[in-house]
Design brief:
Elements (H helix, E strand, L loop, with lengths): L1 H21 L1 H14 L4 H5 L23 H8 L6 E6 L6 H7 L5 H9 L1 H6 L7 E6 L5 E8 L6 E9 L5 E9 L1 E10 L4 H7 L4 H11 L14 E11 L2 E15 L2 E8 L8 E3 L19 E4 L2 E4 L6 E4 L2 E4 L5 E3 L4 E9 L3 E7 L4 E11 L6 E2 L4 E5 L9 E8 L2 E3 L1 H6 L12 H27 L1
């Protein structure tokens, strides 16, 4: 009887041990249930858990396909040394070594070629402001050097290319290509002056000048700017191979001054049509006359009585003197015809332009004259340059405005010349589409300013 019980117990334990090995998780669940229902049996069943070292271990091996196929690996292996690209701007005191060093290139052969090459000497060395781009190998040897510049207002640019040949020597060539027009956004906040704000926003001075001209009839940029005034602008960028060469005209702008918003958008209905500026609502911003014959300057003597610096007597000053360095371009403030261009008494080099409605403008003390008598000129066209000829004690422009032969205050007359004609009905649909697009871009530019201020 005892042997039978022993045999039965041995068989039970053997069976239990086999079950533990085959179903360890099920046994764990049973033990957990027992512990939850009666914690007192914990020590009794703990010894029944299998030793982890006795559990069976299975190794599974499975092949995984490569993400890069053989053909793709072959393509990668066919790529040689990587090329490095860098860009810079030329400086007036540049030497070949200085240029290459700034571009991260160590190539004595290239340096020697730039020093001896006639095209490089004429168009690269000592020429400030030219846009450089260079391609070099991983060994810092020059592969290709390109310099780009726009020599005039013809709408094209020149490209000097210095390139390594198969034998390791270099060759150079000059190419010409048309500039491409793109647009850029800008915005700024007034802290002291318009030019300080545009400088802080990396907006070119040429754009700042246009902003001042666009809104000069509504905003006094010398006295009416307030801290916190801000502006947004979309302007044309003329580019060479994707590199900006110069700025074109302002395409649209908004100026927030002293609680009021002023807007402008350039609209040209077709390539042959004459474009003009309008408000975003469609009212014309055209003026019969510009507010100043010099882009952005200061008045040193206005239309009033003054003590003449040469004659040493009090007499009426029947014009306005505008201070500017010698050589500063002088432009006609309106369409007209040159009635006189030459030397005239105390005026020195002077240009007279006859306009509509018996109006005449006079531009005196010029250092040079760029027009001839009888020539038709259009508003904004350069007619000469600021100088110190005639009775002038320093470089400036003496500017007069005559109405039926009588001198009047030129600045006041220009400000009264607003032509507020709205957009023509036939052009309205095209204008509305353009204005809607410009609103989106101006809002994006303004949002960039707000984000920068909050950060």
């Amino acid at each position: 009887m005892t042997n039978g019980l022993n045999n039965a117990g041995t068989a039970f334990l053997s069976s239990l041990k086999s079950s533990v090995r085959k179903h360890p998780k099920r046994l764990t669940a049973i033990i957990a249930a027992v512990l939850l229902t009666g914690g007192g049996g914990a020590f009794a069943v703990a010894s029944l858990a299998p030793d982890p070292a006795d559990l069976p271990m299975v190794t599974v091996t499975e092949s995984v396909p490569s993400l890069a196929m053989d053909a793709e690996l072959a393509d990668l292996s066919s790529i040689g040394a990587l090329a490095l690209y860098r860009s810079d701007i030329t400086r007036g005191n540049d030497t070949p070594e200085a240029i290459l060093q700034r571009l991260g290139i160590a190539d004595p052969v290239a340096s020697g070629f730039l020093r001896s090459d006639a095209l490089s000497q004429q168009n690269l060395l000592g020429r400030a402001g030219r846009v450089l781009s260079a391609e070099a190998g991983s060994d810092q040897a020059l592969i290709r050097l390109t310099a780009r510049w726009a020599p005039d207002d013809s709408g094209s640019f020149k490209r000097l290319v210095v390139e390594r040949q198969e034998g390791g020597t270099f060759a150079s060539r000059i190419e010409s290509a048309p500039l491409t027009a793109g647009s850029r956004l800008g915005s700024g906040a007034i802290t002291s002056s318009l030019f300080a704000a545009t400088d802080a926003a990396n907006i070119p001075d040429a754009v700042a000048v246009q902003l001042a001209e666009l809104f000069s009839g509504s905003i006094d940029f010398r006295r009416a700017l307030r801290k916190g005034d801000h502006f947004s602008v979309v302007y044309e960028s003329l580019e060479a191979d994707g590199e900006p060469m110069r700025t074109g005209r302002v395409l649209s702008a908004e100026f927030f001054n002293n609680g009021k918003t002023y807007s402008a958008v350039w609209f040209q209905d077709g390539p042959q049509a004459k474009g003009a500026y309008y408000t975003l609502a469609g009212n014309s911003m055209n003026r019969a006359y510009l507010t100043s014959p010099v882009a952005f300057t200061r008045v040193t003597s206005s239309f009033k009585m003054r003590f003449h610096p040469i004659l040493k007597t009090w007499r009426a000053h029947l014009g306005t003197d505008l201070a500017a360095p010698t050589g500063t371009p002088v432009r006609t403030i309106g369409d007209g015809t040159v009635s006189f261009a030459g030397v005239q008494n105390g005026y020195g080099n002077v240009v007279h332009i006859q306009h509509a409605n018996q109006h005449e403008t006079v531009y005196a003390h010029l250092s040079r004259i760029d027009v001839r008598q009888g020539q038709a000129v259009s508003q904004g066209q350069t007619i000469g340059a600021v100088g110190q000829t005639g009775w002038a004690t320093g470089p400036h422009l003496h500017f007069e405005f005559k109405d039926h032969g009588r001198q009047v205050d030129p600045m006041a007359t220009a400000l009264r010349s607003q032509e507020a004609a709205p957009i023509a009905p036939a052009q309205r649909p095209a204008f509305d589409r353009l204005a809607a697009q410009m609103r989106i871009e101006l809002t994006a530019a303004d949002q960039t300013l707000l984000t920068a201020q909050t950060n």
